[in-house]
Amino acid sequence: MGFCPRCGVKLPRDKDLRFCPNCGSSIHAARKPSIWRDALEIRIISLAVIFILCVLSTLSGALAKISVEDANKMNRELEELRNSVSASAVQTIFGNNYMHTLIMFIPIAGPGWGFYVLHNTGRFIAAISVIERVNPVLLTFTLFLYPFTWMEYISYALAISESIMLTYSIFKRTFKSEFIKMSIIAFSCAVILLLAALIETALMFI
Length: 206
Hints:
Low-confidence stretches: none
Helix content: over 70%
Oligomer: single chain
Number of domains: 1
Largest sheet: none
Number of strands: 0
Mean pLDDT: 87
Shape: elongated
């Protein structure tokens, strides 16, 4: 909601409103920044909510009950993955994370895939907690002591929230303009995830 640049009165949400109902001055130029600001606020709130849901999705997997046998099997799979990653760590970590992120951008289906992947990540945390006898919640939040975890989850939250925006744009028939925004966000996620992969790789070999 905008304000009149002359008298400061709150303006009603009317797209066709050209003059202030209080003082009569032109308000067309004053409404554009307000509309842009409202849209930005919606995106920021959406991003924050999705980020929290991503963390909760991982926690739900971490709290899943896993037998010792399954935990050992999952741990072996994780060790095999780590051994294969060591040769080309940055490319493998970045490639895997960005592939999942791109799928998360898909309208309607993307969020479901994202939350499934994050829940599955939580299950591996649960397996490690069983073997190491560590509290799974503590282990999950310990990951957020590392910057690459924040960077990865921000990328996932960006992708999922943009998927929701894309779905909304289909119904509003503004898909083309939203697709341009999605392309910019997807490129931003690529940069963030590449930096995250570099940091994670550097920490792996310390």
